[in-house]
Amino acid sequence: MGSLLDKIKKNRENALEKLADVLPGYKGYKEKEMRREADRILRENLVRRLSEQWNKLPDIQKKLISKGKITYLDDVETIVNRLQTFIDKVKGGATGYGGLFDAIRVKEAELDALYDFDLALLQKVDDLKAAVANLRDAVNSGSPSLDDAISKLQDLTSALNDLWDRRNEVFLGEAGKEVGSDVAAPEPPEESGGETDELTGAETSAGTDQDKSEG
Question: The whole model's pTM is what?
């Protein structure tokens, strides 16, 4: 039992170290006085990086029009709207977090879940950046993988919104008590021939479905 507990503790420390490397000033949620700051640092990082990608989408829409691929505009608009919805959620993310922010203690399971969610969100943002670049390249080159590039972005924007909503559940514990232990952390990624990465992975490869008919 001791070795298992040591392994769990080590995994938590590794997750916190990874987050601190990406998010300067991030010290996690264990200490009550640091929770709001850790949450603020994460949210500001997500909003900044996702806004950069959101700002690239109107140019992609214009390129679709110039190339006569009008049938894709609604699909890209769906991506724009989902991403904007997520950004808006993150900007207002601290609303209603009194439970965790005011809790005397946070159970170890909830600390693990929060760090897994934060790592997963950061990984999804990296995946989304790559997917936006892939969509831009597919539009510019007229690649037959355009359908897959759009589908990948739609999946990623849906996954981001779902991750954020599930993360919020961890924050909704009753004030003054330990946060509950019934919130599931993100699922670990499927193995892909090597060791399983931390609970943050997302496939980034695109398929080769045929392009939609133009116009």
Answer: 0.73
